[in-house]
Amino acid sequence: MSTEHDDGTVPSADLREEYAQLAEEVAKHQVAYHQQDAPLVSDAEYDELIHRLRSIEAEHPELASADSPTQQVGGSPSEAFAPVQHLQRMYSLEDVFSREELRTWYDRALASLEKMRPDEKVRWLVEVKIDGLAISLTYRNGVLERAATRGDGTTGEDVTHNVLTIGDIPQQLAGEGHPEVLEVRGEIFMPTAEFHALNERLREAREKEFANPRNAAAGSLRQKDPAKTAQRPLSMFVHGIGERSSLVLTSQHETYDQLAAWGLPVSPYTRILDSYEEIDEYLNEHQAKRHELVHEIDGVVIKVDDFGQQRALGHTSRVPRWAAAYKYPPEEKSTELLDIRVQV
Ligand code: NAD
Questions:
Q1: Using the 8-state DSSP alphabet, how is residue 83 labeled?
Q2: What is the full DSSP assignment across 292-319?
Q3: Are 151 and 76 in contact (CB under 8 A)?
Q4: Looking at residue 8, what is its pLDDT?
Q5: Cα–Cα distances in angstroms (integers) from residue 335 to residues 82, 212, 223, in the given order
Q6: Residue 282: what pLDDT?
Q7: For the chain, what are the domain ranges?
Q8: pLDDT of residue 294
Q9: What is the CATH number of domain 83-338?
Q10: Inter-residue contact 25 to 18 (CB < 8 Å)
Q11: Which of 157, 179, 248, 252 has the CB geometry, 3.0–4.6 Å to 81, for a possible disulfide?
Q12: What element of type H or E holds 109?
């Protein structure tokens, strides 16, 4: 006799069925988006599905397994590229969809830090969330040795030859004091103006246009032929760091200053803020001018600035606890995306 019922403690057969179908659907969208650069639905639609999945797992943790789509950082690396093991893991970001959720995250992070490190002031590094794709650049003694996509966070795809065609990314770091091994993390994007110009050219040539700048950047970077990537206007801004040998860095903002001094491109939109009220203002300001920036954004990333405090908060298997991505309300219409295929 089944003991299943709908009392919120044991999932009903209907809920199990819904969960299994939803998990399969979300996994399918992750492959289409991360591996094939060909989303089947809009981000807003995908976010709704994964949030339903997460809320079922929150109520019924016994349904969630380690291979649940909610536990994955992106997708498995494609076999079209050689695999690259990241020296330090690459993470995704905890996303929040309302100011209330962000306030809850902020209060919780602050309260934990006040408890663990009571004598320290907490400062927040706030930056726009670039709508592109993550890259890890490995420099050895200042020379670019390898470039890899995030992949599943542990293993990425080797896109070195393609990255060598991107003018913004130095092949040799400027200045001195480079560590033996340095993993720089950033976002490759297609500037909005370049994206529109590219689509205009494709339209004139009666070729398939790109759905959005993120899709254009991902499709352009993950080309088998670097000569094709070279024809695409790609840029990058740095947003993190992995392995750094014996280099000592104490904060996110010091890291950006150091990377900028070595010639790496750093976002002009980053600020250091002291309170939730200031963060709230930054969100309003950048929401109002989100289409006036060099690149498209889908939100704002809030990070604890100090590395000691970041370490104290730590990570889950998927995301750091010291950062959150506030997503702006969706603007895209799903119908526009349904007929979009990858442009290669
Ligand atoms: P995410 O894109 O929401 O956040 C994590 C990533 O943000 C990081 O890995 C990094 O690459 C990037 N990022 C941009 N600016 C940054 C900054 N300033 N600092 C730090 N990181 C920055 O998470 P995700 O796991 O890469 O993917 C989820 C996103 O992909 C969601 O927006 C989701 O809607 C979309 N998605 C869509 C579909 C679809 O079918 N449409 C499928 C899967 C995922």
A1: E
A2: GSSS-EEEEEEEE-BHHHHHHH-B-SSS
A3: yes
A4: 55
A5: 35, 13, 27
A6: 98
A7: 13-71, 83-338
A8: 97
A9: 3.30.470.30
A10: no
A11: 157
A12: helix 99-116
What residue's CA is closest to ligand 1, atom 37?
43
**pLDDT at position 39:** 87
Residue nearest to atom 12 of ligand 1 (CA): 134
pLDDT tens digits for range 210-239: 989 999 999 999 999 999 999 999 999 999
As given in the structure block, the two tokens for residue 330 are 């969706």
Sign of CA dihedral 319, 325, 330, 335: negative
DSSP H or E run through 327: strand 323-327
Is 129 known to be catalytic? yes
Query: Of 129, 208, 224, 289, which is the active-site residue?
Result: 129
Q: Which CATH number fits domain 13-71: 1.10.287.610, 1.10.10.10, 2.60.290.11, 3.30.70.1140?
A: 1.10.287.610
Residue stretches of the chain with pLDDT short of 70: 1-8, 332-344
Q: Which of 238, 223, 236, 81 is nearest to 156 (CA)?
A: 81
By the 8 A CB rule, do 99 and 273 touch?
no
Please state, in angstroms and as integers, the Cα–Cα distance from residue 46 to each residue in 24, 28, 40, following that order: 13, 11, 9
DSSP secondary structure string for all residues of 16-66: HHHHHHHHHHHHHHHIIIIITS--SS-HHHHHHHHHHHHHHHHH-GGG--T
Per-residue confidence (pLDDT) for residue 6, from 0 to 100 = 44
> How far does the centroid of ligand 1 lie from the alpha carbon of residue 52, in Å?
18
Identify the bridge partners of residue 108 per DSSP, sorted by sequence position. Answer: none
**Of the candidates 222, 235, 191, 194, which has an alpha carbon nearest to the alpha carbon of residue 343?**
222
Report the alpha-carbon distance of residue 33 to residue 41 in Å, rounded. 9
Q: What is the pLDDT of residue 258?
A: 98
Query: Does the beta carbon of 198 lie inside 6 Å of ligand 1?
Result: no
Ligand 1 lined by 157 (C-beta under 6 Å) = no
Ligand 1 neighbourhood includes 151 CB (under 6 angstroms): no
- Give this prediction's pTM: 0.91
Residue to substitute in 54, 96, 133, 187 for testing ligand 1 pocket (most ligand atoms within 8 angstroms of CB): 187
